[in-house]
Amino acid sequence: MAPLPPPPLAASTPLLHGEFGSHPARGPRFALTLTPQALHIQRLRPKPEARPRGGLVPLAEVSGCCTLRSRSPSDSAAYFCVYTYPRGRRGGRRRVTRTFRADGAGTYEENRAEAQRWATVLTCLLRGLPLPGDGEITSHLLPRPPRLLLLVNPFGGRGLAWQWCKNHVLPMISEAGLSFNLIQTERQNHARELVQGLSLREWDGIVTVSGDGLLYEVLNGLLDRPDWEEAVKTPVGILPCGSGNALAGAVNHHGGFEQALGVDLLLHCALLLCRGGCCPLDLLSVTLASGSRCFSFLSVAWGFVSDVDIHSERFRALGSARFTLSTVLSLATLHTYRGRLSYLPATASACPDLPRLP
């Protein structure tokens, strides 16, 4: 009979507790306590702080961790490094690296084992992996790193997508220990063509680094494959670097972060990617009178709104301001759209009983 899984842990349950030095070695010493929700840091020497600064690191702000060794062969300590993205005084997030010195044992091997134990538990918490009840905690608990295919539109937004990818996305993915290949798209529908011929068994997910348009290409490419029923199960992600980042805003809200724009929104979505969570995504199938079919994940527009979006492509270098300019120009040349709307009326048997508004 298979053993029962361990019961869920309370948010304040201490998982690990220990004393660490700092880097450099002559700095203060700290008591670290790891819970399912946060890393608690208390300075012990030279004297405890009455009001510690940075003493609580929520795991939602942690991208990853690692263990390091000193370049000096005489140093028997091992180092436990945590990468965090807290809010600064002006509200924006910034990268902060916290490095702790494991030096409680006399040999490097023992100190490394302790540092690795902390790194393993923290990684399991970040990725939602179960921890053993009473078993030994080693790096063997961790599965192989997820393999991601990153698709970057270098012309996304105001042409800053590639720069943001290099400065923010790639460092965070490396900190999280994720494996990835990166491809820059070269033309419209390039991403759609790539995923149509992709061997999906080689990847654990496809992540777009651009706006909503690139993910639209990826989803339609997956659903245009002969094996679309299996292909559509492939996890997809979005890291917002485009002019329109509506889906990323919804992901940001669903992930529990406060409303954000620009680089902060990108960092929030990258933190969620590092944790590896998945949730279902609703799609809408649209068949045109010509017989062509496409799939949407946000909305479907026709008429004035569509013209604004299409004509704004000429002003892509302006970023999100291109939509405002295109709207003004479309209003100046406003014309009538003629069409027919057909729908099937809802029946009582097809709709569940819903509460009525007062």
Automatic annotation (TrEMBL):
Annotated Gene Ontology MF terms? ATP binding; sphingosine kinase activity
Q: Which SMART domains match?
A: DAGKc
Signal peptide as annotated in the record: none
Q: Which Gene3D superfamilies match?
A: 2.60.200.40, Probable inorganic polyphosphate/atp-NAD kinase, domain 1
The broad enzyme category this protein falls into is transferase
Give the highest taxon in the source lineage: Eukaryota
- The EC designation for this entry is 2.7.1.91
- Cellular compartment(s): Endomembrane system
What does the entry give for GO biological process? positive regulation of apoptotic process; regulation of transport; sphinganine-1-phosphate biosynthetic process; sphingosine biosynthetic process
Where along the sequence do coiled-coil regions lie? none
Q: Which keywords accompany this UniProt record? A: ATP-binding, Kinase, Membrane, Nucleotide-binding, Transferase
**A GO-annotated cellular component:** cytoplasm
Task: Outline the extent of the DAGKc domain.
Answer: 143-290
Q: What is its main location?
A: membrane
> Which protein are we looking at?
sphingosine kinase
